[in-house]
Amino acid sequence: MKEKAAELAVVSNKTFAASTAVNLHHYDISSALQTTLEFDELIAIFCNKIQHTIPHNGVEYTNPEFDLEYKRGVLARHSCSYALKVEEQQLGELKLTRSQRFSKDELKLLESLLCCLIYPLRNATLFQQALKMAFTDPLTKANNRTAFNDSLLREIKRAHRSGSHLSLIFVDVDHFKSINDQYGHECGDLALASVAAWLKESVRGSDAVYRYGGEEFVILLSDTDIDGAMVIGERIRADIESHTLAYGMDVLNLTASLGVATLKGDDTFDSLLKRADAAMYQAKRQGRNRVEAGF
Ligand SMILES: Nc1nc2c(ncn2[C@@H]2O[C@H](COP(=O)(O)OP(=O)(O)OP(=O)(O)O)[C@@H](O)[C@H]2O)c(=O)[nH]1
């Protein structure tokens, strides 16, 4: 049992090789852990299964790679913590707490049982990494078009059901072709990655920036009406205009044209997209570096 993270006992697949023979309890836990690939569900199942052999009041699981913090119960005075690993792959840290000390026998049993958890956790890691890749644009690290289609469909259903507002903003970089032509595609790629980063900063706290294609991005704003979306659109436009992009000895200034639309009662996926897109083209026609609403 260790109290400080720096002195964590390590449970890895090597511990498994040294552990006692697999018994029915291990088998029961292993079977239950095969039912999900979600980290928090795996931890909850594991802790439920060991509760009667190793009673505990509080559980804390952290996995910085996936920005995950799972807590349940009441964190008490005595704790035991484990850094979970398979080979060199970190799988997060698990801490159990309660008001009485954990005995040596309990800790030995817990280490042995934790071996049932590490491979399901490793599978969850691989699955979550694959999911992340499938929904991320590799150049800009923004969410990709597939992620956008999924999110927009889900958000439209939610907004229609609950009567809440939903807005979206199309952002199209102005005269982007001339950046490629003048400075080359490498510079164009850098510009796109930079714009994506600026957009994420502008809508801080939200994960709703998507690369729609080419030099076009889209931002999905839940619970936001047209007035709110226009304010955010104007902030984004000003942010892009105020940034500079250093490329070798050159300093580039970028602008973008934005189209904003808010979901109406009879809107579908296509009609909402069409209004935002039309508003963006209106902004281009009006001289670029502008925000227009599509009503
Ligand atoms: N470097 C780079 N260029 C891209 C990428 N995707 C699309 N483009 C370029 O983006 C440019 C888009 O040009 P246009 O559609 O003519 O638009 P524009 O020059 O931005 O002009 P306006 O939108 O009218 O202001 C094309 O030259 C594409 O080749 C990419 O991933 N990387």
UniProtKB/TrEMBL annotation:
EC number(s) on file: 2.7.7.65
Gene Ontology CC entries for this record: plasma membrane
Reaction(s) catalysed (UniProt annotation): 2 GTP = 3',3'-c-di-GMP + 2 diphosphate
Top-level EC class as recorded in UniProt: transferase
Limits of the GGDEF domain: 164-295
Listed GO MF terms: diguanylate cyclase activity
Cleaved signal peptide residues: none
InterPro entries, per the entry: Diguanylate_Cyclase, GGDEF_dom, Nucleotide_cyclase, Rev_trsase/Diguanyl_cyclase
Pfam family membership, one: GGDEF
Protein name according to UniProt: diguanylate cyclase
Organism: Methylomonas koyamae
Gene Ontology BP term (one): cell adhesion involved in single-species biofilm formation
Cofactor: Mg(2+)
Record-linked SUPFAM superfamilies: Nucleotide cyclase
